[in-house]
């Protein structure tokens, strides 16, 4: 057994949605550091970000465009990947919207629709469109992998104003399980696909919490809700994605892995 080969993602083709900053950028950087070819996809032009990540090497990083609320845009992203690569080893559904400012009785219906469109409908459509590329990449020796970035808020009752975000992430966790059960290896029978489907549930990370992390006092307060006593580093999520996409994680499917510093088991989370 070769340890490096066990966790290797060298040469894999990876697509990360919402890969421009925060967790998405950390995921892209981690795969590139392992020698993968990574496409980061967003509504924004990420060409400069992709160039910066690519400079870290030894893998590659390129930018593509996608609006996860648009079926047409999602189809175009998959068509671009098919034209460029013809296969997709790893799909990371990371793009998401969040809003936590409205009380329940004042939550706008159009905001609910927008968040569900990006956070749930978008991943559903992208996996549906990319399934052939994933199936082409997967084999009995090297599986393809779908990793959905969800949230601990989909696994617990969170803050008072977490309505659409937590509900959408909980639904994506269930969708991950459904995909694993029906679209994967079919219990080893003929016609199965060598694709694993898993979810990673981050706890407190930079991104949506940036407004709380601008001061040392704020960072300490956010970190105090975790057993680890710190805010997560985006590379923590990247490392979990690499594990699930490598030979080391090939026997894991249908699972949701909290990467939360122990938030879900901490006393404050259960008080």
Note down, in words, how this protein is organized:
With 271 residues, the protein is α/β, with parallel strands linked by helices. It has a single domain, classed as 3-Layer(aba) Sandwich (Rossmann fold), CATH 3.40.50. The radius of gyration is 18 Å and the shape is globular. 44% of the residues are buried.
Quick synopsis:
The protein is α/β, with parallel strands linked by helices and 271 residues long.
What tags apply to this protein structure?
271 residues; alpha/beta; Rossmann fold; seven-stranded parallel β-sheet; 8 helices
Count the helices. How many?
A: 8
Number of domains: 1
CATH homologous superfamily label: NAD(P)-binding Rossmann-like Domain
Q: Beta-sheet strand percentage? A: 5-15%
Given as residue ranges, the uncertain stretches (5+ residues, pLDDT < 50) are none
In order across it, which strands form the biggest sheet? Answer: 3-2-1-4-5-6-7
CATH architecture: 3-Layer(aba) Sandwich
The secondary structure category is alpha/beta
Average pLDDT score: 90
Give the SSE layout.
Blueprint (H helix, E strand, L loop, with lengths): L2 H4 L6 E5 L4 H12 L3 E6 L4 H10 L3 E6 L5 H14 L5 E4 L15 H29 L6 E6 L14 H20 L11 E8 L13 H8 L10 H12 L10 E4 L12
Parallel strand pairs: 1-2, 1-4, 2-3, 4-5, 5-6, 6-7
Helix pairs in contact: 2-3, 2-8, 4-5, 5-6
């Amino acid at each position: 057994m070769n340890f490096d080969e066990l966790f290797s993602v060298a040469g894999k083709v990876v697509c990360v949605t919402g890969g421009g900053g925060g967790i998405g950028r950390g995921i892209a950087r981690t795969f590139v550091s392992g020698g993968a070819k990574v496409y980061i996809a967003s509504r924004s032009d990420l060409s400069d970000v992709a160039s910066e990540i690519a400079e870290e090497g030894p893998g590659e990083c390129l930018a593509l465009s996608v609006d996860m609320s648009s079926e047409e845009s999602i189809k175009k992203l998959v068509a671009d990947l098919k034209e460029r690569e013809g296969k997709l080893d790893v799909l990371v559904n990371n793009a998401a919207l969040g809003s936590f400012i409205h009380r329940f009785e004042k939550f706008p219906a159009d905001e609910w629709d927008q968040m569900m469109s990006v956070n749930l409908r978008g991943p559903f459509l992208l996996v549906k469109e990319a399934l052939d590329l994933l199936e082409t990449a997967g084999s009995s020796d090297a599986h393809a992998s779908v990793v959905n970035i969800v949230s601990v808020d989909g696994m617990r009752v969170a803050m008072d104003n977490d309505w659409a975000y937590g509900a959408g992430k909980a639904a994506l966790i269930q969708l991950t399980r459904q995909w694993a059960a029906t679209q994967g290896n079919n219990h080893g029978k003929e016609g199965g696909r060598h694709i694993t489907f898993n979810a990673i549930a981050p706890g407190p990370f930079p991104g949506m919490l940036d407004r709380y992390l601008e001061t040392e006092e704020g960072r300490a307060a956010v970190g105090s809700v975790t057993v680890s006593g710190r805010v997560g580093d985006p590379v923590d999520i990247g490392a979990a994605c690499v594990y699930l996409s490598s030979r080391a994680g090939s026997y894991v499917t249908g699972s949701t892995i909290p990467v939360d510093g122990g938030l879900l088991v901490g006393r404050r989370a259960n008080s």
